[in-house]
C-alpha cells in the first residue's frame, strides 16, 4: 500500500461497539476498541492514500450466539417487530466489505 500510494483496510466491529449490550461488557469494550483503532488508523494513513473503515454488523443468529438470544431479549424484539433489524440468520455479510475494498480513492 505504501509503495502504490493507495489501499483499503476494512475492520470488523459491531453495533455493540456503538451502543452497549446487556451482559456483554468485554465484547462491547473490544468492539469499541476496534472502532477507535479504525478511526486512528484512518486519520494516520489518509495522507498516504490508504482508506481505513470498519463494518458494524448487527446481531447475527449463529450457533455461537444461540445461548445469548434469550439473555439479551433479541428474540422478544424480533418477534414483536420492535427491533427486527437487529437479528438475522447467518449468511454472507461480506458484501459491504467488498464494496469498501473496491472503491477507488478520488484525489
Overall pLDDT: 76
Which structural class fits the helix and strand makeup? alpha/beta
What is the CATH superfamily?
NAD(P)-binding Rossmann-like Domain
* Secondary-structure element pattern, one letter each: EHEEHHEH
Query: What shape does the CA trace take?
Result: elongated
Instruction: Return residue spans where pLDDT drops below 50 for at least 5 consecutive residues.
Output: 75-87
The whole-angstrom Rg is 17 Å
Number of helices: 4
Work out the helicity level: 25-40%
Q: Kindly report the spatial arrangement of strands forming the biggest sheet.
A: 1-2
| Beta-strand content estimate | 15-25%
Question: Which features characterize this protein?
Answer:
107 residues, alpha/beta, Rossmann fold, two-stranded parallel ribbon, 38% helix, 17% strand, elongated
